[in-house]
Amino acid sequence: MSPSPLSSRREVAVCIIGAGPVGATLAATLAASGVPTAVVDAAPLPPMELPEFDGRAYAIALTSRNLLEAGGIWGHLPWEPGPITRIRCADGLPGERASPLALHFDAAETGMGPFGWMVEARALRMALNARMRELAHLSVHAPARAEVTRRPEGVEVRLSTGEVIAARLVVGAEGRRSPLRQQAGIGAATLDYRQMGLVGAVAHELPHEQVALEQFLPNGPFAQLPLAPTPEHPNASAIVWSEKRPIAERMLKLPDEDYGREIQRRMGDHLGKVTPIGRRWSYPLTAMHAMRYTDTRLALVGDAAHGIHPIAGQGLNLGFRDVATLAELVIAAHERGADAGGGGLLASYQAARRPDALLMLGATHALERLFGNSLPPLRMARRLGLAAVERMPGLKGFFARRAMGFGPVTGGLMLGREGRARLTP
pTM of the predicted model, to two decimals? Predict the structure, then answer.
C-alpha cells in the first residue's frame, strides 16, 4: 500500500477518489475481479491495529453483506458482527397511553436469515484496509491530493506525491461536497430538514436479543440497533436519534448521566438502565440528489450522488448498491476488452441507479413528513396504518425484503450469485 516512487506513472482501468466505506468497497470489488484499480484519499488510512470504540456503527443489509463477501471484505472483520433478527416499529414515546400499536418484523418469517448486521465503524475500516493491502490489482495512494483531468480519450490523475495515474474511468466517492461533481458542473437538489442526527452508543443492563427498535417521535425518529457483544461491552446498542437542532444542541451539552436519561426516555426501559459509551457524533440532516451521476469518464457513487434522511437506516446500503451496479458493468467490460469508462457503460449505470435512489429519497422523505408530525389526525392515521400492515403478511414481507436490500434492480453481486468464483487475490 506504499506509494510508488516520485514521478512514476501507473495505468489502470479505474481510479477512485475517496477511500471511505463506499470507495474502498468499490476498489476491493473491482481489484478482486482482476480489474486494474487505484484508490486515492487525501487523508491517511487509519492504522491496522484495533482503535478504541468510538460509538459509530453501520447497519449493513443482507444484500450489502453479499457484496462485502464477494469483495473478500466480510471475512476480514475482526469479530463477528451483531445480527438484526427482529425489528419493532412504534409511534410515540414509550409508555404513552395512546400508542399501544406497533409493527413487528421477524427475520425467521422470511427464511433468508437476518435483516442485516450491525458492524462497528472501526471494524469495517480494519476489514477494508486488510483486504486492500492483499490485492495485487489495487494500488492505494493515501494521503495524497488529486488533480483530475478528464478528456474523451481518458483520465489523468496527478497526485501531490508526484505520481501520475492514467485511467479509463474516474469515480467520485468523496462525499456530499464531491470536488469531482463540482468540477463537472453537476448541480444538486438539496432539502434541509432543520434537524440534527445524534449518533453514538449505549451500554444497557439487559441483552437486546438481536432486536432493533424504531421509535417514531414528533421531532424525528429514534433508533436503537443491537451491537455484537465485546469484552468491553457485553450488552450494547447503537443509537441514531433525529432531533430539532436547538434541542439537539442542548442534548449534546448534557453530562453523561442526563444524556443517558434523555436517551432512555425515548428508548424505553425494555433493556434496563442505559449508559452512554464512546463519543457523541452529530451532523445536520439534509437530503441531496445530484442532477446526474455521470459525465465524461466520470461516475459518482454514494454520498457524492445522493444523501437521504436516516429514518430507514439505508444511506450506506444505497451507496453499496451503486458499488454493485458499477462494479458489475466495469467487470463485464474489462472481461470482454471493452472501454471501462465509455459512454454506453456510464449511461447504463445512471439508468440503473437514479430511479432506485430517487425512490429511496422519496420514501424516506414521505416517512419523515408522515411520522415527524404531532397533529392528532395524522398520529391516528399512522397508528392505524401500522396496525393494518401488522395484519397483512404480504405487505409485511415486501417491507422486510426492502429492509434486506432486495428490490427490482438488485444485481448479482448483491444476490450473492455472481463474481465470487472468479475473485482472486
Answer: 0.88
